[in-house]
Amino acid sequence: MSSKTDKQSYNKSKSNLAASFLSRANDLREKNLYKEAAAIYLNAILLNRNDVNSYYGLGLCYKYLKNYTKAIKNLEHAAELKPDFYEAYYELGICHLLEGIPCGAIKNFVQAIQINPENPNAILQLGISHELCDEADMALMIYQKLIENSPNFIKAYEHKSTLLMKLERFREASGVLVKLVKLQPDYASAYLGIATCLDKTGCPAEAQRYYRKFLQKKPLDVQAQFAKTRLEKLKSIKKHNNYLSLV
């Protein structure tokens, strides 16, 4: 009887100490002290091998320390212990992207979406993963679906328009960006994107208008000089064409 009581007391003490380590490690991680936090998470895991939160926290520390191999290992362990752990699968996908393995990220983002289909972030990252795997059509489809399901999610418009511009589908990109500025009129880079698309598709007058809008909103932006240069170039072309028409 005494032996059983002693064992229960020991297990309770061990559990309390593991919880104390976990709490301290979480506090350190929130202060961006990742190396220090990682050491304490390991202490917590030594005391409790089934502590899903310690494996998750340790995985995040390794992620921020850019040790993605160890991050993936610990996040996978957290996901094994808790199969419905959305954050673990999401962070696994992010770590695969950071490690330069976008095709490996896809299954993790799919799993995260299955657990929480209402969260747009995993859907966006799934689109990015397909894009990085040179699957542009799949990425565009995902971005469009995201726009339809979460019409106020600005990042979906950003990524879809950027990909369309990379593919030189400037008219489609311009259409996406026009929708974006209707949602968020102060989104300056969207005006620059529209101007660039119009410039590329031979609509100089409209391009000038949007270059001006961008410069009004962001006169000191790093892209301001580019916008000014294109604006002056389009003006000079117009003057030249007007002169030729009078000759």
What does this structure look like?
The structure is a single chain. It contains 13 helices and no strands. The chain is mainly α and about 250 residues long. Helix 4 packs antiparallel against helix 5, helix 5 runs antiparallel to helix 6 (about 100-115) and helix 7 (about 120-130) packs antiparallel against helix 8. Helices cover about 80% and strands about 0% of the residues. The chain folds into three domains: about 15-80, Alpha Horseshoe (Serine Threonine Protein Phosphatase 5, Tetratricopeptide repeat); about 90-150, Tetratricopeptide repeat domain (Serine Threonine Protein Phosphatase 5, Tetratricopeptide repeat, Alpha Horseshoe); about 170-245, Alpha Horseshoe (Serine Threonine Protein Phosphatase 5, Tetratricopeptide repeat), CATH 1.25.40. The chain has helices at about 1-30, 35-45, 50-65, 70-80, 85-100, 100-115, 120-130, 135-150, 155-165, 170-185, 190-200, 205-215, 225-245.
Evaluate the radius of gyration: 26 Å
CATH class type of the largest domain? Mainly Alpha
Q: In CATH terms, what is the architecture of the largest domain?
A: Alpha Horseshoe
- Form type: elongated
Total beta strands: 0
Report the uncertain regions.
242-247
Q: Helical element count? A: 13
SSE order = HHHHHHHHHHHHH
CATH topology annotation of the largest domain: Serine Threonine Protein Phosphatase 5, Tetratricopeptide repeat
Give a quick account of the main beta sheet: strands, pairing sense, barrel closure. Answer: none
Specify the structural class.
mainly alpha
Global mean pLDDT: 92
Straight-line distance between termini? 111 Å
What is the helix fraction of residues, given as a range? Answer: over 70%
Counting structural domains, the number is: 3
| The named CATH superfamily of the largest domain | Tetratricopeptide repeat domain
Fraction of residues in β-strands: under 5%
